[in-house]
Amino acid sequence: MAALRIAQDELGWLSTELMDFVANYLCMAPVAVYEVASFYNMYEMHPVGKYKITVCTNLSCTLMGAEGIAEHMKKKLGIDFGETTGDGRFTLKEGECMGACGEGPLFLVNNKRMCGSLSPEKVDQILAELE
Ligand code: FES
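Above: inputs. Below: predicted complex with FE2/S2 (inorganic) cluster.
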């Protein structure tokens, strides 16, 4: 998993060639690497935008307003979940519980930066920082 994370950080996503390289480097069967990469939400099997924003839509965050945050972001970016903006800057994803339910609603930027206690105003501020 760590090797896949490092590989994804380099390219932004995991191409078949990159997963084959990881499998070869670790002396593993390529299918074992594909299985891990396709199971976990943080790995991308297709190109994504410079900033991948994963919004938690599980129960606790939903109760804290995640649906409204997601709708605000979709409208602001002009994309739906699973899509990338035309300029390639933002990809919006729907995510599972990130283990920080008390900070909901929240999202994760590029699997690294967690932004919690979101409001539409705070979302706008974060997106402006990223632009
Ligand atoms: S439900 Fe969103 S972090 Fe747990």
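The first helix runs from residue 2 to 11.
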